[in-house]
C-alpha cells in the first residue's frame, strides 16, 4: 500500500515517519459508523478525523466527538476559506473534513481514518491518490433497506431519498481499492483490520 509523500527529495534518514490516509465509505445504513467505532476501540493508535456537519445532533451524539455541529453559514464561510480537505452535501446537510488537522497527523506518521460519503471520498481520491479507499457494502439491497428503516430516524420521503442514493453509491463500489461486505460484523471488522495492518 502506498503512503502519502511527506518530503520530496529527502533521504531516508531525514524523512519523518510517514502516515497514511484511509477512507471508509459506503451507503447510509450499511454500518460504517459502527464498524469505525469498533475499529477505534481495538486500535487507539489510529487518528479518527471528526467531520464537521450542519445537521442536528442525534440522540447521544457529542459535539466534538461524534461531529462538530455548526450552522450552514459558518460551514459556507469555512468552504470559502479553503478549510476543508473535502466536503459534500448529503440529505440536505453539509459534511466536511477539516484540512490542517488531518495533514498534521499524516505528517507526524499517523494512520488517519476518514468515514465519509461517496462524493467526499471521490474528492479525496482525486487529491490524494495514495490514500487507501475502502467501500463497505450491504449483504443485499433489501437488507440495507431493513437497516435504514430499523433506525426509525427518518420520514418515508427521507428513506426513499436515502435508498435512491444508496443504489447509485453501491454502483460506484468498484472505484475503491477494497470492497468489504458487512454481512457478519466481526468478519467485516477483521477484513478492515487486514486491509490496514495486514
From TrEMBL:
Highest taxon of source: Bacteria
A GO molecular function term, named singly, is: GMP kinase activity
Q: Where in the cell is it found?
A: Cytoplasm
Provide this UniProt record's keywords sorted from A to Z: ATP-binding, Cytoplasm, Kinase, Nucleotide-binding, Transferase
Q: Give the EC number.
A: 2.7.4.8
Q: Which residues form the Guanylate kinase-like domain?
A: 19-197
Which NCBIfam families does the UniProt entry name for this protein? Answer: guanyl_kin
Specify the protein name. Guanylate kinase
Q: Which gene encodes it?
A: gmk
